[in-house]
Fold:
Amino acid sequence: MGTGMRFNGCPSKNELASAPGVPSLEDLNRKPLAVIECIEPIPCNPCEHACPFQAITVGDPITNCPVLDPEKCTGCGTCIACCPGLAIFVIDMNFTAATALVTMPYELYPLPQEGAEIDCLGRGGNTVAKGRIHTVKTSEKFDKTALVSIELSKEFAMDVRNIRMC
Amino acid sequence: MDKDYIICRCEEVTLKEVEDAIQHGAHNPDEIKKCTRAGMGLCQGRICSTLITQLLEQRGYPPQHTTPPHSRMPVRPVKIKEYLEDIKDE
Amino acid sequence: MKNIDVAVVGAGPAGLSAAIEAAKYGVKTLVIDENRQPGGQLFKQIHKFFGSQAQMAGIRGYEIGKKLLASAQMHHVQMHLNTQVIGIDETNTLAVIKDHHYSEIKARKIILCCGAAEKTLAFPGWTLPGIMGAGAAQTLVNIHRVLPGEKILMVGSGNVGLIVTYHFLQAGANVKAVIDAAHSIKGYGVHAAKIKRAGIPIMLGCTINRAIGKKQVEKAELIRVDERFNKIPSTEIQMDVDTICLAVGLSPSTELARMAGCKLYYDAKLGGYIPLINQDMQTTLEDIYAAGDMTGIEEASIAMEEGRIAGISCAVGLGYCPDTATSQRVVQNIRLNLSQLRSYKPN
Structure:
């Protein structure tokens, strides 16, 4: 049995490394950026139109995986809630000297409380680390998808993609 | 292997009965319907016809080579009383 | 007997889109649906849809339903709800039961948008209460706001299985696992990723052997299968569940097309027997068109585009489009959209 998205639902390290929407660690260390974990050709392009800085390109055909331009991306997070696949995250690797800020789409109620201590889960649903809810943003524009930002130890920023209330 | 479970819920036709029908020469959904009543009940085969198509395919009678089951009025369960009274009126 | 230009059977995404396009040209259009509410399956789709920004992508399914309804109203599409079409004959007459009364509707053109029914899986115990189609469970949760159970097993890793699992998660149910006899996930990876990172196991190469229970399902017995789907002896495990949802595909609802005499063919990839149609969505009968899932199981975005072509084709066929160059251009654009939407399918 193989590994990767098709075989266990988790994109593998290789799949992520070759996804055109996932910026390099070098770029991520420079500034906050969107991380688009969209690795399959899906006929879908709302992210391209959501970005106010034209940092995301899908183009023609519509099944292209989104390409992120790390120079244009400001890490604003406007794209997160528009992704029907809930596959876009924003990572601020240098939120503080020791911590990173991971912002993710969240569609479960109740929404977490800002400041709450939570379990940070990896792509497989496993508990990876403890973290703290930094902000919870909702807006009409996000259409019921909340943007939850979690502060956690830097080393886990590229692994944590979900939360569980403690 | 237990073959007494039901394939057609409406007419309570079991897997064994369908298999027997296939063995006796019923090689498409209509023939199985005539032999066993599978697909003749309230839902008119909406649930079991895909199961029967699969069973036939597994036994060497692929759907590409058989005709789809016939469809007759009424395709939805209706009270025959209402239906007949109004036809008289029309 | 009621007379109408175009009768559309089914008020789902394909039927509504077809009716709206036809009505735009001034065609007297009637949509018939057996449900109390129009919209087909759209109103239970609480997730955001994939697709092109130009065609309502990124919008939740029920919002798309609301937009279609508003548009149908604006273009004066007539609607018969709670109305079952029980037959069709060679004079383009539909036999319907409306409010418990029989009547007939004669149309110059008929567009069949009857959608699809859930396929099922037969195994010992499958008729126990608590075992249901995933789509039926989705209706329970998202329309009626009732959870079918507390410990759920989802059978099938296609998009329906994955999406309904996510909806269960949002409704607070405990999904114990998603299983599939296939050895890779059938639906889109991003849908699988959403439930995987919530901790729901996805077990591949695994099928249901039997359901156990007295008055309702209490346990599911699972068994591993090899690459050829043969059960591997002594690999059975039992799982405590009170609900088993079957998401094993959809089957096009072709009863009326068959009764009318449309030619059908079998396409396993598109869900089974489907009517043969040309690029105008016309069946082998001149006045009968078909669109949406009943012409092959695909996405709602595709059903809407197919419906639009059928609606325009009927308007053209009835002489409502004097400017055929313009309508041709519109149809060409829709066909282009369709080919893009179809350019990739998982597995």
